[in-house]
Write a structure and sequence with these properties.
With 498 residues, the protein is an alpha/beta fold. It folds into two domains: 136 residues, Leucine Aminopeptidase, subunit E, domain 1 (3-Layer(aba) Sandwich), CATH 3.40.220.10; 313 residues, Zn peptidases (Aminopeptidase, 3-Layer(aba) Sandwich), CATH 3.40.630.10. Helix content is 36%, strand content 20%. The strands form four sheets. Strands 7, 8, 9, 10, 11, 14, 15, 16 and 18 form a nine-stranded mixed β-sheet that branches. Strands 1-6-5-2-4-3 form a six-stranded mixed β-sheet, sandwiched between helices. It has a three-stranded mixed β-sheet with strand order 12-13-17, with helices on one face. Strand 19 and strand 20 form a beta hairpin. The longest helix has 29 residues. The radius of gyration is 24 Å and the shape is elongated. The relative contact order is 0.11. The protein binds ligand BES, manganese (II) ion (MN) and zinc ion. Zinc ion binds next to strand 10.
């Protein structure tokens, strides 16, 4: 979808569809009033009769409205007047686009940007409008032999902005919003692809494909033989029960000053998690194809970084493997020596994410990163703690934790901090190795982070547990592409562009 910023009057503009707001109390927005005045009280009449209430997220489509040149008119509920914030703005725009996609409109002009939105400077309004539009328009139908929905025709959205200054700020917002949305859509696609297609090898080829189109992006892959030489025995122990060879994908973007230490992003890429010998129960096991959403978000974020050519150095590391039960699979009680030299007793083969991440985190050291952030669908316990709305954030570095929380708020992709520390770490003790890969059931998201902290002691490191936020279950089952918006915002802020 293309986005642009223009000015003009709702009553006289030529467009396939004019999008105007109505508040919950039936109060018309300014654009709605302008149309109402020339269209014989069309909107106020509807509201008076109770056919449209202006509830947040509600829409009503009118065809061929008389008195204005727009071919269609889309009323969009904005909720209570004076309470519209960026979240409500996103919701309203998403709802409008959702309604527009069901029509044959090829373009639309939105006047919603005339409204007062808290913190709604033109850049942010444009950026969030673009992100919400693309998020709504996203479809995953590449594996259906017949596509039942009519193809969307909406190709251009124009937003009202009054002058040159706000229009150029909005143009920046559209560019950033589209780049973030494209990264997020890529993450969703990789997440939605099933385990028989999206293997570690497939992820590596997708990373390479991204690099093929961008000279500045360098992609290399550490293969199994090299992993053995490097002593990545924790990672290897996870993939040894699978016919799929593991991959450690390395993506490097050097957009910043040469000598500046990079940010390292590390994403869990378990392309399917059966639990291994500690086999998972059958219900909803198909959702374990989403266990590579950390990897997907890191790859998606790199796509955003490259699209915007961010002036920053970033290295993305994706340990990718499949966790299967098999004659060669590791057993509960097996002890492996990690690349760091520390030994781990694998008490539960279903706690495999931390095993692939720990070796990737050790490998990350060779890039001498200024900051390391790992992203993983790591624990069911995090879903119990935070539900599906906020990602779990754990870090021993307060300023870094604050910076990440801030990025989440700005990007409307929030995280919530959980503690880590010695008391929790004690649960990992083992009678036979340096420590075990699991503690008790309690505080499971935290003890998982404590495990990772044993590999990142002297690094500026944070861990995002996205088990609750990376995908949706039920009727709307599918990958969300989170936390691409958070990660992209973090890097854009570091790069000083947003
Ligand atoms: N990929 C799962 C975590 C997960 C489970 C995410 C359910 C979303 C929904 C991870 O590999 C796992 O199995 N974790 C175990 C850890 C436990 C054995 C300590 C878990 O959470 O049950
Ligand atoms: Mn598991
Ligand atoms: Zn897993």
């Amino acid at each position: 979808m293309d986005f642009s910023a223009k000015t003009g009057s709702a009553a006289t503009l030529r467009t396939d569809c004019a999008v105007v707001g109505v508040y919950a109390n039936g109060r018309l927005s300014q654009a709605a009033r302008e149309i109402d005045a020339v269209a014989g009280n069309l909107i106020s009449g509807l509201v008076k009769r109770g056919d449209f209430t202006g509830k947040a997220g509600a829409t009503l489509l009118l065809h061929g409205p008389s008195g204005i040149p727009a071919k269609r008119l889309l009323l969009t509920g904005l909720g209570e007047q004076g309470k519209l914030d960026l979240k409500g703005w996103r919701k309203a725009h998403g709802a409008a686009v959702s309604a527009l996609l069901k029509t044959a409109a090829k373009n639309a002009f939105s006047f919603l940007s005339m409204e007062d939105v808290a913190d709604g400077e033109p850049y942010l309004l444009a950026r969030h409008a673009a992100e919400a539009a693309e998020e709504t328009a996203y479809r995953f139908d590449e594996l259906k032999s017949k596509i039942d929905a009519t193809p969307a025709r909406l190709g251009r959205m124009t937003l009202w902005f009054p002058d040159r200054k706000s229009q150029s700020a909005a143009a920046r917002g559209f560019t950033h919003g589209k780049a973030v949305a494209d990264g997020q859509s890529l993450a969703r696609r990789l997440g939605n692809l099933p385990g028989n297609i999206c293997t570690p090898t497939f992820l590596a080829s997708e990373a390479r494909r991204l690099a093929a189109g961008n000279a500045g992006l360098k992609v290399s892959v550490v293969e199994e033989a090299q992993m053995k030489k490097l002593g990545m025995n924790a990672l290897l122990s996870v993939s040894q029960g699978s016919r799929q060879p593991p991959k450690l994908i390395v993506m490097e973007w050097r957009g910043g000053p040469k000598q500046k230490a990079p940010v390292a992003l590390v994403g869990k890429g378990i392309t399917f998690d059966t639990g291994g010998i500690s086999l998972k129960p059958p219900p909803a096991m198909d959702e374990m194809k989403f266990d590579m959403c950390g990897a997907a978000s890191v790859i998606g974020t790199m796509a955003t970084v490259v699209a915007l050519e961010l002036p920053i150095n970033v290295v993305a590391l994706v340990p990718a493997a499949e966790n299967m039960p098999d004659g060669l699979a590791s057993r509960p009680g097996d002890i492996v020596t990690t690349m760091s030299g520390q030994t781990v007793e694998i008490l539960n083969t279903d706690a495999e994410g931390r095993l692939i991440l720990c070796d990737a985190l050790t490998y990350a050291r060779r890039f001498e990163p200024s900051t390391v952030i790992d992203v993983a669908t790591l624990t069911g316990a995090c879903v119990i703690a935070l539900g599906h709305h906020l990602s779990g954030l754990m870090s021993s570095d307060d300023p870094l934790a604050q910076e990440i929380l801030r990025a989440g708020v700005d990007a409307e992709d929030r995280a919530w901090r959980l503690p880590i520390g010695e008391e929790y770490d004690e649960g990992l003790k083992s009678n036979f190795a340096d420590f075990a890969n699991v503690a008790g059931r309690e505080g499971g998201a935290i003890t998982a982070a404590c495990f990772l902290a044993r590999f990142t002691r002297d690094l500026k490191w944070a861990h995002l547990d996205i088990a609750g936020t990376a995908w949706k279950s039920g009727r709307a089952k599918g990958a969300t592409g989170r936390p691409v918006p958070l990660l992209a915002q973090f890097l854009m802020s570091r790069a000083g562009v947003a």
